[in-house]
Amino acid sequence: MTEFRHFIVNESQTSERLDRLVSRYCKDLSRTRIQNLIDQGYIKVDGKETIASCKVKEGMLIEMMLPEAEAASPQPQKIPLDILYEDQDLLVINKPVGMVVHPAPGSRDQTLVNALLAYCGESLSGIGGVKRPGIVHRLDKGTSGLLVAAKNDAAHRGLSEQFSSRSLSRTYQALVWGVPSPLTGTVIGNIGRSPYHRQKMALLHSGGKSATTHYKVLQTFGTMASLIECKLETGRTHQIRVHLTSLGHPLIGDPLYGKAPRHVPPSLKEALADITHNLFPLLHAWRIEFIHPRTHEKLSFTIPSPEHFTLSINIINIHNI
User: Among residues 89, 140, 153, 254, which one is catalytic?
Assistant: First the structure.
């Protein structure tokens, strides 16, 4: 159903940008959504269409028409989901290894978005004017674990702000080749597209985006491998994979960065390849913490690492005997 809103600009708001003013009045809408509504002529000033950067004056009438959210272009598909928490605003999901989050060339269906569209149905009020789940952080296809999705614009906006301010906390477990030294540390370095391999990311001396990863060794398996905990301050593409590789300890099973050291027995490489299929890096998002965007309650969730982690550790232990 189309919704109508209006307000009059007061003296203290004179010379403020239209999109910023509307954003303060309508906290349930994202800034991007408001700018799109202005561009489409759904927000008018004194009955006239204008632009987002328009400077308003005292006494101006701001009228808004919020059309009903459009149906999402990805098709809903009934796919089983492991949901740890759900309310009217958001869901926390345990994503299985092998599932793609967003439809893309080569993976246009059977994604997490397809599954959420079918599961949530009419409980999605729309993100940016489209009935779709708002996913503020992604997990690679080969990464398992916790992910939060918003059902409405207000929740999406609140979670996105926490992601940007780094107050949304994400902790991962990774199984890597070798043992990092020191056992606890921080990797800082800009990450961007590799100039030598278009599918890979890399640490760059100039350009890219800043990235910080805190790591801690939880368990060692001789000198062959380690179980590591990684806590992210930033969320760059392939961040953990790139940072740990830069230390000389790539993730086991990683098809892009995970080349095993020469001293690893061929039998161990083959056994682990049978589990990971040389497609899935052994990386698991095991903890997530954030403030609920509506209730302001602190929420924390953990999920044990999946079976292929345990199987891999058992195989490594056998080869260390």
Answer: 140
